[in-house]
Amino acid sequence: MASHALFDEDSDLPPVEELPTQAYFIIKQDVTLDINFREKRIDGTTDIILVVFDDKLEHVDLDAAQCDIDTKHITVAELREAHGSIVEGPKRRTGAEYNDPYDALRPPENYNWTAEHHDLRRIRARRLFQNRATDVPAEDREFKGCTPAYGSLKGKVIDTDAKADLSEEDKLRDMTVVCSGFLVEESTDPKDERKRLMTFEPEKKTSVQKLGFAVGPFEHVDVSSEFRSEEDEIKLGISALRVHAYCLPRRAEWVRNTCIAMTMAADHFSWSFAKYPFGNFKLIFLEDMVEDTVALHSMAFASNRLLYPEDIIDTEFDTTRKLVYTLAYQWTGINMIPNTRNDIWISIGMAHFMTELFMKRLCGNNEHRFRMKTMSDHLVEIDIERPSLYDLGSSLHLGESEIEFMHLKSSLVFFILDKRLNKASSGHNLMRILAKLLTKVQIESSDKASILKTPDFRTRCEKAAKCSLETFWDQWIYASGAPRFDVKARFNKKRLCVELTLNQIQHQIVKKPELQKADFMRLIKERRNQTPLGEVQPVFSGSMTIRIHEADGTPYEHIIEIKEDAARATKFEIPYNTKYKRLKRTRRMKEKLTGAAANADAQGETEQDALTVSLGDGLSTPEEQAKWEIIDWDPETERKMDQESYEWIRIDADFEWVAAMKHTLEPYMYVSQLQQDRDVVAQQDAILYLATGPLHPIASGFLVKTIMDRRYFHGIRTMAAAALTRQSNIKDLPMLGLRQLILAYRDMFCYENSNQPRPNDFSDKQQYKVRCAIVQAIAEVRDANTHRCPLDARQFVLDQLLYNNNEKNPISDHHWIALLVKTLATSMIPSKKDEWVERQRKLKDDAEDGFLEKAIEQIERVLRRDEWTYSYHNIWTIAGLDAKQRLMKAEVIPKNLLDFAHLLVLVLTTDRSPHVRSKLIEALVQGLAAIALGEHAKPVEKEESSMDLDDPLLVVQDSEKEIEARQEMFARRQNLDSALTALRKEMDETYANDQRHYRTALRKALDHQGLTRTEIESLLDVAAMMLEEASTWILTLQLPKAWKAERSAQATHDRDGAETIKASLTATTTSPSRGNTRASSIGTSAPPPPPKPASFSAPKEVLAPAKPVKLPTGSAPKRPFDDSDDDEPMAAKRTKTSTPQPIIPSAPGRKRKMITLKTKNPGRLAVILGQKPSAPRRTSLPGMAPKKEKEPTPEGVSAGIPPKHNRKPLPIGGVTGDSARKPLPGSGDPVRKPLPAGGASMSPPPPPPEKKSMKINTNTARASPKPLSNGTSGSPAPATPLSASGRPKIKIVRKSTNPANGGSSQSPPAP
Q1: How far from 14 is each of 126, 255, 415, CA to CA, in Å?
Q2: What does DSSP say about strands 161-165 and 24-36: parallel, antiparallel, or unpaired?
Q3: Torsions phi, psi for 129 (to 5 deg)
Q4: How large is the angle between the packed helices 765-779 and 814-828, nearest 10 degrees?
Q5: 1048-1100, pLDDT tens digit by residue?
Q6: What number of helices (H) and strands (E) belong to the chain?
Q7: Rg, C-alpha atoms of the chain
Q8: Which residues pair with 182 in a beta bridge?
Q9: Rounded CA separation 892/894 (Å)
Q10: CA dist., res. 813 & res. 803, Å (int)
């Protein structure tokens, strides 16, 4: 398929020319800022010290944007060394030129661009949207020079101060300045006592993008002194890091609760890796940040969204991890810098590795391994057609999705690298390597030591581990994708070994995934940026640990090596070590229940007896099994289990691979692995199999046992609850999983035999997470026939919301109520639309209607409650509105939606929060992606063929139209070009009525001055997705208006339906100093014009010679068009006379001017210009047969059309009878005078009244016909008004201003 126009906007343009490397290097920059809060203005000056490599360098290019620079007061001085000190030479002013690069985001002046001109807008600003392809490495910049991005400030060659200007109201608050570096001096401005001068200097040389400051009425919280004990303070000594937090008023308690782990993290990093490289660490919580955190030099900005009080437990783990990462990034990303953009992955990966080690210490090993396993499975799914980790650094500017992918993959690569180094070097892991590296940077304090390079980092790891990492680097750093293994195991009795076959199938399974809404904008940006996509590796190599749990229950580990040159399918023979039979766990459990195990406990359990006690061994009594509907293995399966030589096999037991494993083990082996393996990763693999395996009541029983056993990690229990949802559709036991989920919830959280929950108690956080997971699983149960959640399950969720009681709970239930609202809406939405189900749903059902009414009432109650009892970050309002829009989208409740797309784009120009604007753009893009992918496409109606009616036995499954619609839908979900083409088609057809609102809203948003570069770039992508490119645009020129012409208003009231044409004339004056102003009066009635002779040639015996027209003295004005009514014919041209034109020698010569006519009807404009009249404008002369196809126009002869040679001459003596000419409409004289021929004479018209402006009527003078014998005119007046399609008239009113008399108008010429 051809490429979409969105990707070809600048394909025919030359590439953006990058600025060459400049022969200078900036070594220092001092900035002085004056902050004025009253006027919301920042003024400042800067001193830049640079080293010039070329003595012939004439000018330097610096980067500056979104500021006003006084280029007239830029000075240059030369620094030289004299007697061991730096001496500054005399300052001299230099010429400079500044062009703000962000001006390209706005349309050019006088260009009236709309949203359809998105391609021109992008071409104009493409230098801003395109990142540099090449850059000078950090290690060579002091020798080769700088590479400015814009070079907007061009100057000829030749630590931060912050001032707070306080108003009277702000004097009550103490404004605090928090800046990178340390405070050097603080004083009062001697010129203004209201100003405070605070001087900061950074501890080390740092690039400008890592410096920051914040000014505001901050409250200070000394985190380190409040949460560090005296013993730890003495133990750390000078290595103790001081952590300070700053927040806006009335949030200090939230800051203390949020930063409770920061001191512990700082001590952990100082002990495990190296001393903190700066003096202290400052954490500032600000409003309306787009990102959650931004790491800067010795400080970090954090959003207020991360703050949470003591009674909120839902966000504490994620928030703590984000804040700790900003602290770890001080060592790896601020104190150390990547050499190029391709080396950024090292800084990010090291910071995540340090963060995860601390979170492992804080939350435990199970939490750490469970999280890494979850991240690993997610990476395997999304790392398809993505750039490699090394190439990804040059694409981070494309958006948040690229940054998130970088954080995910770099963290996992460092995790598995640590595992492999630890195994290869017998304990010399990555933690020790990083500690040596960071300590070396602290000791040397040189720029070379602080630069991170990918080859150097690999050499350091190889030197420490004493093994080659070339293969690892090629597969995980320079390539993309992840391995997928198909594992097959078979026990060979003859050779007494386990034959294990590993087949890498990533090249077979990895296909192009379907387009997703969340990835739609990312794919567009990557395609536009031509991001290199990595290829799938055919073979991943390395060592792997295989753990076989043999018949006696003893695990045996074996290390195999997958070589790079091996085939995709590799076979390994693993020796078998035991000959004992497998223990019969079922029999041992029965003996334990009967009391036999009690004697064993008294005498001491042996190793084999300990194996019988495993996880998930509850609910084993006959009464419990009957209540919970749990069944045990059948005898045939038990016999098969007894014959197995091993219980289960673990592939990659040490978690050294980020890979997907497809096993062919028996189901009971996964159950044994779930119950007897203590590794949380092994348990997670077993749950994943049960969640996707066959539906069976035995699997359902083991899942509910896992939920009820509190010895399991809470993540395994939540996964078991989610997996139990599928077990509700077992063939012979319908809704078995639902009943077990409800029983589990009632047993742990409700009163006996009821749905009413006990009062909330969230002190046990693991139980709270399991409780949330069970409610979500119940809401997601669907009947396989009706595709709807059963009414009992929906009522159960509603009861939890209705009877929620949080009076005695010290923990807030804000997130819990929001979760119940969300799950309630989920339970009411069917999973699939079916025609029969839809018909059944529309039938009257009192139970369904009653439940719907109660559910909507509870959602509205939560929304009202948030109005007077504020929830945490208004989470109740967010959950309620989200639930209502989902129900409307699923057509469960009537739609009452405003034009969300219109409102979203309008809010972009009015909301002051950058975070809100970014989320609105994200929501708008996902909405358009849903339309492009066909989520809202109407189904194709089935056509009834004539063959079906003729032959009742012939069944046509799909018509040709349905097949084409299916093919189109498939293409939309697989191909990006097809999806974008379908989106424009949908917008033109389905949403055509709203297109005008979308265009207007997008134009206002694109022209708004307050949007950032990233927001405008995203909006341009949105406009390109929705709208076709415009081929024309309007250009407005600011020129003096010399002429203005428009059609006069209708003089008579009986001309209904007549069109009004307005034409504007623009004259380009050659000399602006003329001072002539011209205007036109609209709608004023004109006096009768003076008589003018006819312009057409008539026989001498018919027409009398025309009299010469007497012209006034002075300069002859240009003859304007006539301003008479539409029903009159066009005036004839003025006859040439021999009267000479008087010439005034003193008057300057008038130059020719170009006049442009603009009208909406080109045909009418052609008629005005007399080029090609569309209809005859002359009345048929006497004796001429009228044309049949056109009605004769009852008007006079039009000027400018020469008479035909075959037309009969006018009769001498006037016109009589039916051939008489019609009178002028509106004239009081019903008898028209004859043409000026023979004895007829022209009656002189009345003199026109005086007026200030000159007005010339160019109509032909007409002669009235002779009156008939009965005293009437020769031709009666028409009974109906004339058509408005006649030749229109335009009026030109010219005013000339005389500078001598102050602008008096020229008087009209005398008749």
Answers
A1: 11, 53, 44
A2: parallel
A3: -85, -15
A4: 20
A5: 655 444 444 444 333 333 333 333 434 443 333 333 344 444 444 443 333 33
A6: 40, 34
A7: 44
A8: 201
A9: 7
A10: 13
